Amino acid sequence: MTRRLLLGCSAVGNALVEHARDERGGRDDLVAITDDTGWVSTLRDRNVATVEADPTDPGTYPDSAAVVLVASDDAERNVAAARAARERYPAALIVAHLGTAPTDEQRAAVEAVADRVVDPVEAVAGRVFEAVGLDGGRGADADAEFAHAADDEKPARLLSALRGLSGPLLVVAHDNPDPDAIASALGLARIAASIGVDADACYGGEIAHQENRALVNLLDIGLRPFDEVDLDAYGGVALVDHSRAGINDSLPEGHPVDVVVDHHPPRGPVAGSFVDIRPAVGATSTLISEYLSRYGIAPERDLATALLYGIRIDTKDFTRATAIDDFEAAAALLAHADESTLERVESPSVSPETLRVLAAAIENRDVRGPVAASCVGEITDRDALAQAAERLLDLEDVTVTFVYGYMDGVIYGSARARGADLDAGELLRDALDPVGSAGGHASMAGAQVPLGILSEVSESESLPDVVEAFVAGRFFEALADAPAQPTGLPPEFPTD
User: What residue stretches are annotated with the DDH domain (predicted)?
Assistant: First the structure.
């Protein structure tokens, strides 16, 4: 299978081949097509499979190509080759060198079909590597990354999915979005805009957490409330930081989805023309940052700041569920981000509701071995539960926390685990997914359960007591049955 296709040749194309030829170990996955006899001879001498033919004629192209590089010196032929390649390989990543002295019309024609355009003034091999998300000056490391980029078709498939939409894109964050969801929604909208696809980012619920509000206000982030959105006005829907329509977002359940980018483990099959879910990565913002880099898009200061903050929050400043990708993305974003704004976001005023929930969580805590669970009763801010769960981890010898409360006819819960031989996401799924929805990662998870008949309490009962008995019973029962128990959990763990 052809993975890389070089159409036409010049100093740019030749330098690209020279840089990459050794690391492929002679594998026949690079094909060059040029009608320049001199370049044909040179490329063949370097053991590059070369076809002497017109690079603008799709009849000479191989059956498949993941990455196409258009690299002639002739601007008009590059226009024709780029157009032919786009028609022949709709999903390919096309990087086009404009050639010598291109006109404005030729430049516009290439930009209309290519994913990345290399300016002739800077047309050197390092610039081509940068255009596909690489740094051409890093020797063996760059060779290894070039192999990775050529084999990874996700960037090309994402652009193909976006181009295939019949109208604007609606990027949907999960309800009551956290910084990772907010930044990811904005980043995906920016990617769509880079190829001429109009996109709006939206969210359901409210942005209640004080730090999240500070982020949105200080960066003047344009995220639309879902209630203001007309779904019929959009040609496609993308989900970020979650993967199922109607589950923790304001879309109708089962609504068609075109694009999904997420880092949470899916609970069942995920539908979409393009799906990228990587649970090993600490934040969805990391994935969006990777795509921006692959496409050669330098994020604006506000977007870079939001993405960096999203990574820091979801990885708890790189101390929780962190992958190498998260460090690399954060390092790349740091050059574009506004650190003074981050300092202001991280030091907002704390709302009275957050303090009340934290106090209730401490007062009502039920500690069993290394596990602390707490019912805080009726709430007005869901985000306060997560903050309380984080703070309860500061209790001595506690490695797992679960804080829950109810509002608007729904019970919400947030769990955290640190240094425990236990998957918090699986624990909540086992306990509450059968009666609601739950999920997350090993170290952080959430759940929501309809109150239903629990709200119909008798005069002798209180709703907080009924909720606590129901949720705590299921939680501790699932904990006792968990295959991997928290460190220090007694073998005979009490369930009542």
Answer: 170-311
